[in-house]
Write a structure and sequence with these properties.
- The protein has helices at residues 17-26, 75-79, 106-110, 132-135, 143-147, 162-165, and strands at residues 3-8, 46-55, 58-67, 85-87, 94-96, 117-119, 124-126, 153-157, 181-184, 189-197, 202-203, 208-213, 216-221, 227-233, 237-243, 250-256, 261-267.
- The protein has 271 residues and is mainly β.
- The chain folds into two domains: 3-184, Alpha-Beta Plaits (2-Layer Sandwich); 189-267, Immunoglobulins (Immunoglobulin-like), CATH 2.60.40.10.
- The strands form six sheets. Strands 10, 11, 14 and 17 form a four-stranded mixed β-sheet that branches. It has a four-stranded antiparallel β-sheet with strand order 13-12-15-16, with no helix packed on it.
- The N and C termini lie far apart (68 Å).
- The chain binds iron/sulfur cluster (SF4) (3 copies).
- Residues 12-18, 48, 63, 65, 148, 150, 152-153 line the site of one iron/sulfur cluster.
């Protein structure tokens, strides 16, 4: 049986309850054989990553909780020379045995997700345990999942959550490790701007904004504030034409969406 986490990024309000609850559960608490205490500072077995896209005033923020992916092909487990890392048969969670870990850090080097921490005092590697100590004592979900006020985090059987997993993505799929933490609704990139008439000193409503990339097109018009937003774009190279009756068209070529783009205030000149 495999248990999975499903995270709906669109629901996350960035309250950090999950991050705090993970610390509360593990700092100063010795859950051996599952894990030794997490140090007070320096470790975040769950880290809420804040992503700020664009530039003022066109900015979007989203939050992505990140922690061990409990991978199907756990690179950390394969790299450990002391067989200290193991997969639990009952739920597939990957744990580091604190009694067997010799602190060689091979797992840290092997994991592409940067979710293993080193406990300098105990000289062992540590990470998210899936709160296996709770699951084995009657809890149906880990602490982080339990405290989330927006139900961003879900935990359960892969089969039961298959509808949520459909269309979800995993982080760094190129790692090929088969992560068991799925993310829904990670926003794509955006291209935005505001169109105005510099003579009239007013915004231009209803200007056509035609975006192309290869054979794909996106066709929208500016709103009552002269604004346009192309949302959820893939990373790529785009060309944009902005046109309105009575105005010279404006061209933007080779817009690269490795980052979100705010084109700012765009003046349309009258013909
Ligand atoms: S995310 Fe890293 S630490 Fe967690 S199972 Fe995968 S390889 Fe191991
Ligand atoms: S499952 Fe437990 S150990 Fe893992 S991130 Fe959540 S609270 Fe922390
Ligand atoms: S507790 Fe839930 S809403 Fe709050 S930061 Fe974590 S995932 Fe987001």
């Amino acid at each position: 049986m495999a248990k999975v986490f499903v995270i709906d990024v669109a629901r996350c309000s960035g309250c950090y309850n999950c991050q705090l609850a993970c610390k509360d559960e593990h700092v100063g608490n010795d859950w051996t054989p599952y894990a030794k205490p997490q140090p007070k500072i320096g470790q975040f077995w769950l880290k809420v990553q804040e992503n700020v896209c664009g530039s003022l005033p066109k900015v979007k923020i989203h939050y992505i909780p990140k922690f061990c992916n409990h991978c199907t092909k756990a690179a950390c487990m394969e790299a450990c020379p002391n067989e200290a890392i193991y997969r639990r048969e009952q739920d597939g969670l990957i744990l580091i045995d604190p009694e067997k870990c010799q602190g060689c850090k091979a797992c840290q080097t092997a994991c592409p997700y940067d979710v293993i921490y080193f406990n300098e005092e105990l000289k062992i590697s540590q990470k998210c345990t899936g709160c296996a100590h709770l699951l084995d004592n009657g809890w149906s979900k880990p602490r982080c999942v339990d405290v989330c006020p927006t139900q961003t985090l879900r935990f359960g059987e892969e089969e039961e959550l298959k509808d949520l997993i459909e269309g979800a993505e995993v982080l760094k799929p190129e790692s090929g490790l088969g992560p068991k933490v799925y993310y829904r609704n990670i926003p794509g990139k955006f291209i935005a701007g505001t169109v105005y008439d510099p003579v009239e000193k007013d915004v231009v409503e209803g200007a056509r904004c035609l975006l192309t990339s290869g054979s794909k097109t996106w066709d929208i018009v500016t709103d009552d504030f002269g604004d346009f937003w192309f949302k959820d774009l893939p990373i790529g190279v785009f060309n944009l034409v902005i046109s309105a009756p009575g105005y010279e068209p404006k061209f933007f070529n080779d817009l690269k969406t490795s980052e979100c783009i705010n084109l700012g205030d765009i003046a349309l000149e009258k013909k």
